[in-house]
């Protein structure tokens, strides 16, 4: 199976092309946030360098969020359009889980973090299973640091934080003390090769056209609206004319 | 003659649209998914919400457009896409999807200016004859564009503040009309009379620029003042007076531009081009220009749609305009200003 894997959830961009479990080509960039300009040329380049044509691809694997709204939309728009236009499979993977693929120790809990500003984070809790794949212990969510620490309380293992950890390290160390481990800098970056390898085993979506990013957060306008209209059906807001 | 088929994309604001256009002048399909209902909750377009809706709709629209046009990817000549001006997050969905399709099927990619699209909606009715002039009026734009020849767009005047459509939405709110207010205010105006003498800003200035913020403020002040003294104003008269001021300025400036730049065709385009008051007035004013044909873009093509992008895309394709995979959204994209006026 020829796989194209894409992650532009945050500042780093990572794209890879795999043939089953063989990596054919990969690019990871952290110096620019020009995903709009870079993503398609990099996909084109990697598929070329893999001696493949677009129509040779069998599946697109995308890190679908959470993350920067523009970032996850870029990856998901490219991924779902490529899958839809070529009539191939699309597999969605959590962008937080994607970071956990960089960790192999089974004896620590893995706590991937994206900065959601103002001491808010996109985060979840994982443990590496016997097959080497992350198992979700606490589901991905948008939450502030204090509430997250409450959710972590029942767990007394060591916790490895990974990702955009700078803004949260101190607060987490106060709560977890010596049990806190900070991942190395390379592990903070998504690795599209590992994303593709993992996504190879995950079922593809059944309806590519319906795919949207995992924002895990309503827009402010929608959240305010929902407070005032808690029972409204939100499904028919877009009409074909 | 070979048949050019362009698959075109438009996502600059709150419409996701994909079309298939044959030879630049025939619509084989024009799928438009509008988000108006969604943004009505908030009284105007919320950019992040718009971006989220675009990504929900985009591939479904592509499928529908090809199906309705009864063509496959192998039949296509090129892919065209709006890359500006507009909301950056919204534009990016169309641009990314268009690039992905172009790459996947080895098709050339044509970058299209949204305003060129609005103007080329006229080409779907009748071929544009040059030199031509276009008055483009919408929620985001109010511009007079001179086209000395094909693929030359030169701004000779534009709004210095609010776009005309924006002014309609703002005074609509004061009249208790939800966005988009253009059509209801137009209808209301036809039931009223021009009894308030609202200012016509810059109408006599020696340029082709517009300004609508003074008119908007005068309108709002009039209503607020009446509220304070508990006086009930006739809403239809308010709407009629507002519309009269807008239409006067738009048509006066256009008429003066036509005196200075004689053209074969005047095109009225953009969302506000659907305004009946403006269409009637320009039609009447054009009687003094027997050598200039007036082309009113049909109501169905005034709003944002991908058919117009395909029409402009075909013209650009013929002129060799291409983009590569680095194409980015350009939210502030503009035509050049005219360099030397022809006198
Ligand atoms: Zn428009």
Automatic annotation (TrEMBL), chain A:
Domain Gcp-like: 31-156
A Pfam match: TsaD
Top-level taxon of origin: Bacteria
CDD domains, alphabetized: ASKHA_NBD_TsaB
InterPro entries per record: ATPase_NBD, Gcp-like_dom, T6A_TsaB
Any one GO molecular function term: transferase activity
Entry keywords, A to Z: Transferase
An annotated GO cellular component: cytosol
GO annotation terms (biological process): tRNA threonylcarbamoyladenosine modification
NCBIfam families membership: T6A_YeaZ
Protein name: tRNA (Adenosine(37)-N6)-threonylcarbamoyltransferase complex dimerization subunit type 1 TsaB
Organism expressing this protein natively: Lentilactobacillus rapi
Gene: gpp
From TrEMBL, chain B:
Positions bound to Fe cation: 114, 118, 304
Catalytic activity: L-threonylcarbamoyladenylate + adenosine(37) in tRNA = N(6)-L-threonylcarbamoyladenosine(37) in tRNA + AMP + H(+)
GO molecular function: iron ion binding; tRNA N(6)-L-threonylcarbamoyladenine synthase activity
Entry GO terms, CC: cytoplasm
Binding site residues for substrate: 136-140, 169, 182, 186, 275
Keywords, alphabetical: Acyltransferase, Cytoplasm, Iron, Metal-binding, Transferase, tRNA processing
Domain Gcp-like: 26-310
Region forming the signal peptide: none
Cell compartments where the protein resides: Cytoplasm
Cofactor: Fe(2+)
Transmembrane portions of the chain: none
Chief location category: cytoplasm
PANTHER family given in the database record: TRNA N6-ADENOSINE THREONYLCARBAMOYLTRANSFERASE, TRNA N6-ADENOSINE THREONYLCARBAMOYLTRANSFERASE, MITOCHONDRIAL
Function: Required for the formation of a threonylcarbamoyl group on adenosine at position 37 (t(6)A37) in tRNAs that read codons beginning with adenine. Is involved in the transfer of the threonylcarbamoyl moiety of threonylcarbamoyl-AMP (TC-AMP) to the N6 group of A37, together with TsaE and TsaB. TsaD likely plays a direct catalytic role in this reaction.
Record protein name field: tRNA N6-adenosine threonylcarbamoyltransferase
Annotated source species: Lentilactobacillus rapi
Name of the gene: tsaD
């Amino acid at each position: 199976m020829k796989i194209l894997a894409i992650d532009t959830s945050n500042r780093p961009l990572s794209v890879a092309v795999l043939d089953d479990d063989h990596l054919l080509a990969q690019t990871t960039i952290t110096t620019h946030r020009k995903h709009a300009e870079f993503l398609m040329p990099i996909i084109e380049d990697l598929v070329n360098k893999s001696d493949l044509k677009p129509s040779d691809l069998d599946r697109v694997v995308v890190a679908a969020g959470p993350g920067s709204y523009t970032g996850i939309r870029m990856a998901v728009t490219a991924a779902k359009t490529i899958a839809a236009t070529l009539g191939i499979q699309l597999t969605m993977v959590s962008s937080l889980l994607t970071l956990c693929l960089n960790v192999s120790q089974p004896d620590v809990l893995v706590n991937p973090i994206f900065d959601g500003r103002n001491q808010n984070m996109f985060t979840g809790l994982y443990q590496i299973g016997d097959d080497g794949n992350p198992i979700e212990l606490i589901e991905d969510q948008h939450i502030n640091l204090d509430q997250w620490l409450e959710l972590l309380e029942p767990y007394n293992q060591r916790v490895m934080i990974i990702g955009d950890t700078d803004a949260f390290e101190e607060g987490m160390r106060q709560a977890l003390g010596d049990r806190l481990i900070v991942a190395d800098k390379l592990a903070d970056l998504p690795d599209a090769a590992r994303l593709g390898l993992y996504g190879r085993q995950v079922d593809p979506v059944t309806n590519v056209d319906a795919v949207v990013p995992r924002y895990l957060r309503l827009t402010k306008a929608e959240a305010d609206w929902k407070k005032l209209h808690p029972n409204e059906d939100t499904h028919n807001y877009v009409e074909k004319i | 003659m070979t048949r050019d088929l362009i698959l075109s994309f438009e996502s600059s604001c709150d419409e996701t649209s994909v079309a298939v256009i044959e030879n630049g002048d025939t619509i084989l399909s024009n799928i438009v998914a509008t988000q108006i209902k969604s943004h009505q909750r908030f009284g105007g377009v919320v950019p992040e919400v718009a971006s989220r809706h675009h990504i929900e709709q985009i591939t479904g629209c592509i499928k529908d457009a090809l199906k309705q046009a009864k063509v496959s990817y192998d039949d296509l000549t090129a892919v065209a896409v709006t890359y500006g001006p507009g909301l950056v997050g919204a534009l990016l969905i169309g641009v990314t999807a268009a690039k992905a399709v172009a790459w996947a099927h080895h098709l050339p990619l044509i970058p299209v200016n949204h305003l060129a699209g609005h103007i080329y909606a006229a080409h779907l009715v009748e071929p544009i004859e040059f030199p031509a002039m276009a008055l483009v009026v919408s929620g985001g734009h109010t511009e007079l564009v001179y086209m000395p020849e094909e693929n030359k767009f030169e701004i000779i005047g534009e709004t210095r503040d609010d776009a005309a459509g924006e002014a309609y939405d703002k005074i609509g709110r004061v009249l208790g009309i939800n966005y988009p207010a253009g059509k209801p205010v137009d209808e209301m105006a036809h039931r009223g009379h021009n009894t308030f003498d609202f200012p016509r800003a810059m109408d006599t200035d020696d340029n082709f620029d517009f300004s609508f913020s003074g008119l908007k403020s005068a309108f709002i002040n009039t209503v607020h003042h009446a509220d304070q003294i508990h006086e009930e104003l006739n809403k239809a008269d308010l709407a009629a007076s507002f519309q009269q001021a807008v239409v006067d300025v738009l048509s006066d400036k256009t008429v003066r531009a036509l005196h200075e730049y004689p053209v074969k065709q005047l095109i009225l385009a953009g969302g506000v081009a659907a305004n009946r008051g403006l269409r009637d007035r320009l039609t009447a004013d054009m009687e003094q220009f027997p050598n200039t044909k007036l082309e009113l873009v049909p109501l169905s093509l005034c709003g944002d749609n991908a058919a117009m992008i395909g029409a402009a895309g075909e013209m650009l394709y013929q002129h060799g305009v291409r983009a590569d995979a680095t194409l980015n959204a350009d939210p502030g994209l503009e035509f050049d200003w005219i360099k030397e006026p022809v006198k």
